[in-house]
Design brief:
The protein is mainly alpha-helical. Helix content is 64%, strand content 0%. It is built from five helices and no strands. Helix 1 crosses helix 3 (40-51). The N and C termini lie far apart (65 Å).
Length: 98
């Protein structure tokens, strides 16, 4: 039997399990998410809550580190896109001319 690490709820473990396995089962992530019975908003709230807990990294260190890296990368990409828009430029760094 698998040892249960205190600090994660069953819901958090379920979400981490989906994140660890959906891509291997060759199904769409949206279908895997729907199978949990959670709305996408709730799913991602639970995922972010789980990633914030040290217990998650103890339970599945490779997965949690990968998810944190991806989340940080997407956050940086959104930030950079926002800065470019605010400066009136485009992704290539060139200013657009009206």
């Amino acid at each position: 039997m698998e040892e249960v690490v205190p600090g994660l709820s069953d819901e958090e473990r379920q979400v981490l399990s989906v994140e660890d396995s959906w891509w291997r089962s060759r199904i769409k992530k949206s279908d895997a998410l729907q199978a949990t019975g959670m709305s996408s908003t709730h799913y991602y709230l639970v995922l972010n809550r789980a990633l914030a807990k040290p217990a998650a990294e103890l339970e599945n260190p490779e997965l949690v580190r990968r998810l944190k890296r991806l989340r940080e990368k997407r956050g940086n990409e959104r930030h950079n896109a926002r800065v470019i828009r605010e400066r009136g430029g485009n992704a290539s760094g060139q200013n657009t001319v009206s």
